[in-house]
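STRUCTURE REQUEST FORM
Protein name: Pentapeptide repeat-containing protein
Source organism: Streptomyces sp. 44030
Requested output: structure tokens
Priority: standard
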Amino acid sequence: MHTATFQRRRGMIVNESPTRSRWRRAVDRLRPTRTASGIEDRLPWAVLLLGLVVLVLVVGGALWFTLDWLEGVAAVKVDPNAAIGGKDFVTAKLDAVKIALTAVAGGVALFALYLAVRRQITAERDLRARLDAQAHTEDDARSRRVTELYTKAADQLGSDKAPVRLAGLYALERLGQDNPDQRPTIASLWCAYLRMPYTPPPSTPVPATRSSAGVPRPLLRDPHRRSGIRRPDPDTASSPDRTSTHAEAVLERDVRLSVQRLLAKHLRPQPDDSGQPHSAYWPEIPELDLTEATLIDFGLDDCHLPPLRMDSVTFIGGASFGDTTFNGIASFGDTTFNGIAWFSGATFIGDAGFIGATFASDARFNGVTFASTAWFHRTTFTRGAEFVGATFKGDAEFVSAIFTGNAEFREVTVVGYASFSGAVFTSDAGFVGATFTSELGFFGATFSGDTTFDDAAFESAASFSGAPPNGRGRDLSW
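Status: completed
Returned output:
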């Protein structure tokens, strides 16, 4: 009697013999396993065993039939010449056995080949699963690393020390250069930084009126004064050091200029001879939101810009967008341009909105292409407004615009409706060589200076209601 073995299974003691244990282990090895994909990777054992049994039966039956046939042939007495002799009979039986064994060996070989193919498929599947798991692990580690770097750089950008803010700024740039999927977020963070309230420093620092160290007490009429003792002056003790404040404002100005330069750098394609953009170009930026930002000597020349929102922006110094392509809507509503506004050679693919904008200096739109509607409602041009050679493929809306300086529309082309209704021309207005394909309206417009329409082409009606042009050129006040 075999020695009993005990196994604990589901809280119960099971008495099991060694033979049965070996059998169970063998059966367990044959149980189906699951691959990394969760699908049972097992051989159809019942089908394979049935196939082997059928193969043995077929081969055995064929062997039996062959041997029986040989015995029948050997026993033929009718034609002795056709009968097989004793030696030949034995040889024939051996050949039949060889054929049967060969068939069995072939079946076994096919079965072994099948097993090898299955093992190869399983190995490849496991390898793919491991590679996928490794890639997932690497992606997860990369995501955590990117998040860590972004968080650290963003914290640096919020520091009260300018050098730390600059370090965070360039850390974000490096992160975006290495990870294109992070570029929209980084650009949004830069824009958010520029939207923060900011007062630029004056050109020269304002000296402090009094040191916070105190004033000589003998100069004060105080019954409790003691000669030679300095005590804090209540009027100046709590006031900040203006020189230090000016220095901080100057440092903040440098940080903001760095943000502006980085935006321009990554929005400028700078294609090579083959037309491929520079590696520093970030086409993944979906939009720019600089609403209510304070921008200093801002320049986005030769850039390709996504949809742009610059409503209520204050430009300190010049604003340059020369030869820039605005690929979406560009909105400059209620924006103040304190310096020269340079848009010459720019292309506006979408609507261009300058509603309520103020140009305190010259506004130059020479050679600009407006592919859609250009909105200049209630826009104020304090000095010269130049639209020489500009092309308006959509409507040109200058309703209630105010031109304090000269308005130069020489050789412009307006395909859509051109409306200057309610516009005020305080100085000269020139439309020499202009082409108006559609209607032109100056309803309620006021002209105080010379207005010139020499060589202008009107393919449709031009309507003036109110004060007609007082200067040289055609009288279009019919």
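Reviewer notes: Residues 158-208+238-286 form one domain. The two ends are 128 Å apart (CA to CA).
Form closed.
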